[in-house]
Design brief:
By secondary structure, chain A is mainly β. Chain A has no helices and 10 strands. In chain B, strands 2, 4, 5, 6, 9, 10 and 11 form a 7-stranded mixed β-sheet that branches. Chain B has a 4-stranded antiparallel β-sheet with strand order 1-3-8-7, with no helix packed on it. The chains are: A mainly beta, B mainly beta. At the A-B interface, strand 5 of A face strand 5, strand 9 and strand 10 of B.
Chain lengths: 117, 112
Amino acid sequence: EVQLVETGGGLVQPGKSLKLTCATSGFTFSNAWMHWVRQSPEKQLEWVAQIKAKSNNYATYYAESVKGRFTISRDDSKSSVYLQMNSLKEEDTAIYYCTTRVYLDYWGQGVMVTVSS
Amino acid sequence: DVVMTQTPVSLPVSLGGQASISCRSSQSLVHSNGNTYLHWYLQKPGQSPQLLIYRVSNRFSGVPDRFSGSGSGTDFTLKISRVEPEDLGDYYCLQSTHFPYTFGAGTKLELK
C-alpha cells in the first residue's frame, strides 16, 4: 500500500522559515518523481515544486511564486522528500501535499502551514 | 502559464444521473513526445485529491468505469454516469505538459 505522510507544518511569522518532510512507503521511491502541491484556504490547488529521480540528475522545477525562496530535495535512502521554505509570506498559507510520480497519482493527507504575525 | 478554464463551477446532479465537466486550456496540451498530459482528480470533503483519469482518458487503478475522460488539444471533458453518493465533491483538471503545471479552479458536484 502506497503511503505518504507529511510533517513539519505549523504557524510561523512572515519572513521566517519552515521545513516540510514527506515520508513515503509502498512504492519504489528512488525511481519516482516527487512533487509538492498546495491548496489555499479558497481551495485553489497550486503546483509548487518537482524533483526528478537520480536517473534525471535530480532535476528540480518550481512555480514562479516560490522560486528563490523554496527548495525541494530528497533522500532516497530514507524514501523521503523535503520542502525547505524560506522568507515565508502570508500568501504561502495553505495545506501542503506531497504527491508522486508522473501523474501525481498518490497524495499524502497534507500539512497545514499558516504564515501570520 | 497555461490557464485551465474549468466549467461549471457548481454542478447539481441527481443520484443515478449523469454529469459532465469541461476543462479548456489556453494552449495545446500535446507534448513534444506526442502524449497529452491532462488529468482529472476528485477531492472528497475532508480528504486529499485522488487521481481518477490520467492522460485524457485512462482510468486510474480502482476507478469505476462510470468515469470517462475525452478530448484533445485544448478541450477536454470528464463524464460521470450513474452518479453515486461517493462521487460528490470537488473535481479538478490538471495539465502537466507545460511548466508550471496548472490546475483548473474546480467544479463542485453536489446533489440537486
